[in-house]
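quick one before i forget lol
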Amino acid sequence: LATYLQDQHGFTVRVLDEDVMAGARRRLDFHGRRLLLSETIAPASRGFHIAVVLASLEQAELLDRLCDQIALPSSEGRRLLRIGLANYFAGAVQMPYAAFLKAAESSRYHLGVLQRRFEVSYEQVCHRLTTLQRPGARGLPFFMIRVDAAGNVSKRFGGGIMPFARAGGGCPKWNLYDALRMPERILTQSFELPDGTRMLSLARGQSTQGPTGQPPTLHAIALGCDWDNAGKVAHADGMSDTIPAAIGLACRLCDREDCAQRAFPPLNRKLTMDPHQLRASPYAFGES
């Protein structure tokens, strides 16, 4: 990608120390014909940043046309959409659809194999797997979610598979939150939602080094699919007899009665508090 950028557009890629970059992670220097990348960017992500720049240089008209098709209420929203499309382009350049789908199926969706084969990060592999739904060439339908140590959701994809909560904290019994305590290790879990839907969840915490003097940024990423597809995923081997964990989307949307980790009562149920009895949950409730 660096060679292509230089041959086709005359930009040389330089990796500079963070003091020279003055806090920037990527900067395109048109005057000096250089793409400057911060040394804080992991080697596995440098190709992604080069491809993002190529999207702006070679696909500007297409990006503008796609943005024009959606009537966004603000110029800021349009810029965010354009950045998102450029990022999608970069992921597709690094992990071409047909080749990536073939590798995913032949490896039984082994995340480590895909990382090594395409020289990308764990997060990039997870994100790409959520996009393999081209008619006539579909991969497994995956969802992905990314949270920080405070439970804030910064990415969610595949909402048609996993009905994410739009507000409030998530369920602490989901291995997504266990992964924050064990970075760089894939945790597997079978869980069941209150409606009986059973899912496979592969969660991993990741630590990203920030500027010198600041603590690393910690996120947890969960990739998952319907349990019916778990047999096609290498990471689920040996889990056929696993008893699924009973989780909910969020306390406000979950009506499991005897949950010791419940923080709030459900919105659709009436509280029936008994001063003479205390169960595992701090809230007792009846029908809606």
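fyi The two ends are 58 Å apart (CA to CA).
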